[in-house]
Each structure stands twice: as C-alpha cells, then as structure tokens.
Amino acid sequence: MPHQSQKRQSRKYIYGPVPSRRLGFSLGIDIIPHKNCSFDCIYCQLGKTMDKTTLRQVYTPAHEILHEIRDVLDKNQRIDFLTFSGSGEPTLHKDIGYLINEIKKLTKIPIAVLTNGSLLHVSEVRNDLMNADIVIPTLCTADNATFRKIHRGHETVDIDTVIEGYVKFRATYRGQIWLELMLIRGINDKPEQIRDLKKVIDRINPDKIHLNTVVRPPNEEYARPVSLKTMQIIKEILGDKCQIIVDFKPETKVEQHDNQLEKITAIIARRPVTIDDLTKITSMDRTQVLKYIHTLIKKGIIEVSKHSGDEYYRKAGGSDDRT
Ligand code: SF4
User: Fold this and answer.
1) pLDDT at 4
2) Fewer Cβ atoms within 10 A, N terminus or C terminus of the chain?
C-alpha cells in the first residue's frame, strides 16, 4: 500500500479546474516549461519570455501528462473544458496532436487550445489541432509594425505568415475558431486599425471574435487597458460575431481540494489573481483565503502587485496562464 504522501503527489502539468471567462470550469493542461514562447508580448501576464523560440520538440513527457489527466478525471469533478494553456505556447510541443487524440479516448469533455497562432502556418501544427473542439488564436493587428510592437515575436514570424496560417487552418478545420483580440490603449485600438483588421478577420472567418484587454498585471507597465466605451465602439465595427469577454460568475462551487495551499500555489504560479478570484475558485471564504495568502507571502512564494487599482497576487518573480 502506498504511503499517504505518495498518494498526494502534486501535479506538474495539470491545474484547476479554474473558472474561466470563456470556458466555464476549465482544467488547465500546461505542457510547456515557463515562458518558452515564440512571442514576448507586452501584455503577457507571465513576465518575460525565457526562451523565444519556434522550435517544436518534446518539452514534457506525454505519458506523465496523460497520467495526471486520468487521475483528475477519476475524481469526477465538474470540468467543462480541458484546456491547453499555461506557461508557454502549447503548439511548440511536438506531441500536442498525440495528446489531444489520447485525451479524446479518455473523455467526452471538449478540448480547447489557446495559442498565439504563430505556428499555424506549419501544416504539421494545423494537423495536430484538427481534433480539438475549439482553437482560440490571438490576432491583435493586421499590420506588421504594430504586430512587432505588441508581440515582439521570434524573428522568423511576421503578421502576413500568421494570417496565411489562420486562413489555411480555417479551410480544413471543422471545430470552432474563437479569435481573441487583445486591445491595448493607444497601440491597437484606433478605429482605422480595427477597420483594417476586420478585412483580415473576414478572410479568416472565425466562429467568434472575443475582445479582451489588459485586465491583469502585464509584462510592460505601458500596456494599459482600453475603456469599456472603446471596446463597445470596436465591437460595433467588428459586427455580430464579436463579444466583449466579461468576468465569469460561477453558478456552482468547485469541490474542496484536499490541499488548498497547494492548489492556491499552483493557480497563482500560472496567473495573477485577486482575492475574489481565489474565493470563487477554492470555495473558501475571504478570511480563509487571506490566511493562505499571508503564509505564501511570508514564505516568499508569492508577491502582491497593483494593476488598474486592484491588488493581484502573483508568483514571486512572475506568473503564467491565459484562459
Ligand atoms: S501572452 Fe501568450 S503568446 Fe504572448 S508571450 Fe505570453 S505566453 Fe507567449
């Protein structure tokens, strides 16, 4: 019989389920080491990119990831989506197609992939994502100068290549494409920029367009959120498929985790959160959450940062995730 501590091994690749603005209760699948990404976005909530790369390789072992997923599924918690997201760009992982196909054998829960879209021009990557139910790629601009300013991507990636990749993917992919437009004040929010972007979006023909803005502490202080009024103007320009993402309000509570401190640490390691976020995710009251927060601050594991007047808790030195 295994020792109790062996039974409670912490998970390395799976986190949550966390309430997501778009995906309900989303179980995060994090298959890339911290900030290995083809971009270094100014709005990124994970901090600086450690390794700016377009190299596809086996970053983490597929059998261990599948083992953790099986383990979570056995617990019968409410999970609305299994979501590839987290610490870096998931399509950099050479086994993402294999993982999607293997997960499909385990469960009927739909699979979402959040991607920066930089590799969709590669046919192997498009094939790998064919069996995902929803792909959520980023598209913030139609012009290369703004693209470079926002994403500071790998030298081999330019906006025309990205757009062509999206158009090719749409032509063969039968699942849903939800395009995410991250709006940054003074950088990509002018009506004329949005009108140019609309021409490109019409070519891509996504199922939905999600308007987002810099709601969590960004990589660069100058990446500021746009106002709700600006978002509404942009929504009008982009038309019916477009929606402003609003904060998710959970209707039912997630089951109690057997180790709340570990769970809070795992969540904060992947994205900055407020106390309100944590009370929703953990089903604990404010006082309990604050107790754990103070413990983690004392241990130097997390730190506080301010953004748009709110206090966020983040991993000391920077944190991750994008659902
Ligand atoms: S926001 Fe996403 S694409 Fe941009 S640097 Fe962060 S992880 Fe990479």
Assistant:
1) 34
2) N
